[in-house]
What does this fold into?
Amino acid sequence: MNIFRLAGDLSHLLAIIILLLKIWKTRSCAGISGKSQILFAIVYLSRYLDLFTTYISLYNTFMKVVFIGSSLGTLYLMYVKFRATYDHNHDSFRIEFLLVPCVILALLINHDFTVLEVLWTFSIYLESVAILPQLFLVSKTGEAESITSHYLFALGSYRALYIFNWIYRYAAESHYDLIAIVAGIVQTILYCDFFYLYITKVLKGKKLQLPA
It folds into this structure.
């Protein structure tokens, strides 16, 4: 544990809280991609299966339970409780085009060909692209609400902070994970255009608009 990982985890937690509060307070999931939320739920479920086999620390266990629980809770809110407000028409990204390549990559490129390790690797690859349906939805609708923009910024910041975490771990512990680093860099790059628009638009009180 180091300050960059802690900040990244807190940013990730903040993103989840912002998303859940947005849906609950407005009683609507308008502007939120259910496809991205499905992918994130798959990420957490496949990554944290070791919850039942390996104990690392109370903090680690708590965060795993929170991420799994919140992702399933978000899906319940979107597809059951507030289903009528979900924008099916614009949330049309074909997630199989993300899932299948990630499965193939995980089977071909991993640290150890075991079930848990392949699932962990799959989750790393999938998380790097899981935000694409959300960005696609924003580009199709033309703009994003401020609260949705804050959610995306916190989510992108989490991964950017993890890059600093890996740099720190390499410098302090001579430890690095090439799969996680490359996937994290890809994920951060996907957010770059959004980060620029967030800083130049949203923080100045304007609506965020992504090019179609």
